[in-house]
Amino acid sequence: MVTVNSRRLAVLAIVFCWAHWVSTAHADWATCRSKPTRNCLVEEALHGDAAPLAGKDRLDVLIQADAYNHVEYATSADIEEAQRQATPTPVGYGYAILAIRGLVAANHTQRAADLVASFHGPIQSVAFLELTRTLAKAGDVDTAAALLDRIGPALDATTRGYLGQTRVVETVKALAEVGKIEDALPLVISARGFPEVDVAQMQMTVAQAYAKRGNTKTAQSLFNVAGQTLEEGRRYAFGSAADAFQAASISLSALRGDVEAVRAGLQQLQSPPAENPAMDRIAANNRGQYYQRIVYSLLQTKQFPLALEVAKSAPDSIRDATLALVNSISAANGRIGEARTALALLGDNVAPKVRAVAVRNIAVAMAKAGNLIPAVEMAEQVTDPTCRKGALFAIAQTLPN
Prior knowledge:
Layout: H1 2-34, H2 38-45, H3 55-64, H4 76-85, H5 90-105, H6 109-117, H7 122-137, H8 143-151, H9 157-177, H10 181-190, H11 196-213, H12 216-234, H13 240-256, H14 259-269, H15 277-300, H16 304-312, H17 316-332, H18 336-345, H19 352-368, H20 372-379, H21 385-396
Helix pairs in contact: 2-21, 3-4, 3-21, 4-5, 5-6, 5-7, 6-7, 6-8, 7-8, 7-9, 9-10, 9-11, 10-11, 11-12, 11-13, 12-13, 13-14, 13-15, 15-16, 15-17, 16-17, 16-18, 17-18, 17-19, 18-19, 19-20, 19-21, 20-21
């Protein structure tokens, strides 16, 4: 009898302690919601029901907090987990991005190259270009070229040629984005035999970098050169190739701040369907990509209302992705109104995680603007637990230690 009573008492004690823990945890979160701090938000974000999150569970929260663009969120253990989860499939590619960026940030360049070399098929090409951009921003323009020589024999001639040219284009863009103009210019000059559209894109990217530096005279000169490059190539272009030149010209107008030229150009870009349904689908897909580039150019030059206007008119196949782009960059620049509108315009069938990221972007912008409690309340609207935790972690990073 004594034994039975002891067991009952032990069970009661466990139940009492569990109930007390749940009550305390709930009370702690209630306190955090009313008076958020960095520590309590991180605690809520990186803890599960009974223990701190670890492995893939923790990594997924960090990714939802935008660890792609904030590699500092991830520890070395997180990056190792990203490598384990990285696979040559769409499901694993997101982990591959974080692994590549994290390894390069930690000066483990060869491990990043080995990871890309271990892939195969289309994902390898995408991962290779991701590595190219990441390395270029870190000031390394040689490792990607060596990797292409290494994996080249296993690639078909078309893919090898595509990656060879695109590596140069993406390197120039990446260098220009981080202000390394002097490193980018020689690559632009050496790009002989490249399609005029690609050459013009590189010239425009470098011109924009000069504009950001405040050197408007050189920027305008390079914009003029890009315009001449496009006009030269347009003479021999027809069909879908002509659309590519038209889209690049609109992007050039956007970077120059010529709103009327952008609107007029878009009217011409909305070409009638082709007679061949298959060709029409290809043309529609291309136009969608062109819209994204144009919207990105508008966002780069802080033309947020026009970027939102263009995103609204994007082809159905790319509209949500374009609106998500507007949401992201608008929120990052404190343009909460445009970010909210873009979120509201997302279609009913948009992926829940895409919508959750859009909510996170706005919540983080609100926190940066000093509206911390409303930001936390907005993050709590996210129903997916991992996405919610990611939003809370991202908000926490806006607060002092």
